Amino acid sequence: MNVGLEVSAKELVVAREGKKGVRSFANTPAGHGELIQTLTRGGQRVRVVMEATGLYGLDVAIALSDAEGIEVMVANPRAVRNFAKAMMQRSKSDRLDAVVLREFGAGMRFKRWTRPTANALNLWALARRLEALTHLNVAEKNRRHGAGVSAAIPASVRRSIARSLRFQEKEIAELRREAMKCIQADGELHRQQQLLRSMPGIGEVSAIQLLAELLLLPPRP
Fold this sequence. Notes:
It is a single chain. This protein has 221 residues and is α/β, with parallel strands linked by helices. The protein has 2 domains: 2-107, Nucleotidyltransferase, domain 5, CATH 3.30.420.40; 118-216. 61% of the residues lie in helices and 13% in strands. The chain has 8 helices and 5 strands. It has a 5-stranded mixed β-sheet. α2 links the parallel β4 (46-51) and β5 (70-75). α1 (29-40) packs across α2, α5 (118-149) runs antiparallel to α6 (155-184) and α7 (187-197) crosses α8. The longest helix has 32 residues, at 118-149. The radius of gyration is 22 Å and the shape is elongated.
């Protein structure tokens, strides 16, 4: 049975082969369990196609891939968009997207998703947090600059910004150390990281973020 799964932050919309309409499940551990029970009822082999959606889709992809009788394909979004255009499907909604994913699974070569290792998942989570804190740090540095040139900003605000920056920079350094531990624990990751660092303009943080995203990137169409 081919199944299309459209993922959002709170909801999973499912289109099943041979079933009219779609069903919705909560994007929570309990919702994942209910989805698995629904899909495996009857004992037939199930192939689920979903798009790469980062954090919102990772947990459900792992849960489905661990379930007996279910195979998961994490499709490249560009390939799915091109397929939808070929179907003359220009409208867009979660329900329609789930149907397109179901038909994509039926009409295209199925490429089974392999669950990343625990080390790879740790690196991905660390890199995402590092990216978020780095953006915050840049914004806070901009505030520090603005506060430094404005006589209207009291010293208490400048001190607050300075404390915030010290905390953020301490957290960023810790995240970098933990991410490098993940990379150094895997010989292939370490080799790739060194290759990335050899390229002009790619520093340690950029290499960490690139490696982490590549680990979860679906195969090219």
